[in-house]
Amino acid sequence: MKITALSTLLCFALAAQAADKKPAPTANPAEKGAAKSEDLSTFKTADTLWAHLAELRKEPHVQPKSREEMIAIVQDWFGKQRAAADAFVQKYPADSRRWEAKMVGLQATMQLSQIPGGAAKVNADEVIKEIDTIVAAPDASADTKGEAEFVKTMMLSGKIDKDKPETAVAFLAAGDGFLEKYSAHKLAGEMRQFQIQVASGNDTPQTSAVLKKYAEGKDEKLASAAKEILAQREKMKELKTKPVALKFTATDGSEADLGKMRGKVVLVDFWASWCGPCIAEAPNVVATYKKLHDKGFEILGISLDQDKAAMEGALTKQGMTWPQFFDGKGWENSISKSFGITSIPAAWLIDKKGMLRETNLRGPELGAGVEKLLAE
Q1: In what order do the strands lie in the sheet with 297-303?
Q2: How buried is 324 (Cβ within 10 angstroms: 0-12 exposed, 13-18 middle, 19+ buried)?
Q3: CA–CA separation, 280 vs 32, rounded Å?
Q4: pLDDT band for position 296 (cuts 50, 70, 90)
């Protein structure tokens, strides 16, 4: 597997740091995340050092044998970028490319700060100060300024609270401002995609307006994604107007029918053995089931697997003993498709009257949600 940047354009790392106001400890060569020492003195001119930095930014094509090896590779990759970028800025303070080098160093530092056990966290206020300096620099390129403003805009995503959909509005407005100013920038496409992602996870009149705008736009890919999300919202609204109808023959031959489970609280769990987050959540789902099953809590599993043996292996390993639906069609699973499921895990919590009440409870929130409905 190729190690990829996974949107290492700084946005998601910065979002995670947006609320961090603590001063950042000064980095030192011995800290975790520092690159293996590289002799940069061999690059005698700005052009040769710049060419070396460009090479360092290329994604490594390697097959890590373990998580630890992958982390080491990523640390070395970003560590060397940071060292070369810092060297360029120090050696060539009059070269206009120093602003781009500053951005490279800033990105690398942010990425290193996100690696578990890695470098010290950064200070969001200091990041913004550096960005504003780059944007104001008369000799910084338009491309570099656009990248800097992209990062600053993305920092607002760290303030989005999933329990308060209105908090997404500030980010969407800032994103519109960026796109108005930098519509042709290389990162404009990523901003548009992230706007759709944020609008998808936060249902407000403003986010619906954003989705409708993209749905009516000329970009077919973005329009398709926006239309799918809007259709799913309408589907969810419709589902919540009447008891959910769900009936199937489980893999063990038993008949599952939500209509016959009135008086119970039921979790309809859309999952797959190949879904990492699903498997990570499985122990919590199992624990909740064991704790509350005798009080009236049931689970119906809808597997989006194509390999039945893989599904059954996961069921055994995780201790998932409740009825499961499997048709081997993956994302074309007949039940999940009829309900408009586009991502998993999806946890639909049905109340005693058969009404859909929650769609994304995980961790401790799942148990609390089940207990709340059991008490009604």
Answers
A1: 324-325, 297-303, 265-271, 346-350, 356-358
A2: buried
A3: 27
A4: very high
| 3-state class (DSSP) for residue 159 | helix
245-259 tens-digit pLDDT: 999 999 999 999 999
Contact assessment for residue 119 and residue 32, using Cβ atoms and an 8 Å cutoff: yes
pLDDT of residue 211: 94
Structure tokens at 263: 């008086």
**pTM of the predicted model, to two decimals?**
0.66
Describe the chain by its helix, strand, coil percentages, rounded to 5.
Answer: 55, 10, 35
Three state DSSP letters for 194-254: HHHHHHHHCCCHHHHHHHHHHHCCCCHHHHHHHHHHHHHHHHHHHHCCCCCCCEEECCCCC
Distances (CA, A) of 315 to 146, 195, 251, 323: 49, 37, 11, 10
pLDDT band at 120 (very low <50, low <70, confident <90, very high): low
Asked if the bond preceding 345 is cis, omega within 30° of 0, the reply is yes
Residues β-bridged to residue 358 = 349
**Which pLDDT score is estimated for 104?**
94
Distance CA 270, CA 300 (A): 9
Terminal CA-CA length for the chain: 49
Indicate if the pLDDT at residue 17 is higher than 50: no
Q: In this model, does residue 155 exceed pLDDT 70?
A: yes
- Strand partners of residue 347: 269, 360
166 CB neighbour count, 10 Å cutoff? 13
Average pLDDT over residues 52-64: 88
The torsion angle over the Cα atoms of residues 48, 51, 52 and 57, rounded to 10 degrees, is 160
Angle between helices 220-239 and 205-215 (to 10 degrees): 140
Query: For 338-352, how does the pLDDT look when each residue is reduced to its tens digit (9 = 90+)?
Result: 888 888 999 999 999
Interatomic CA distance for residues 282 and 184, integer angstroms: 44
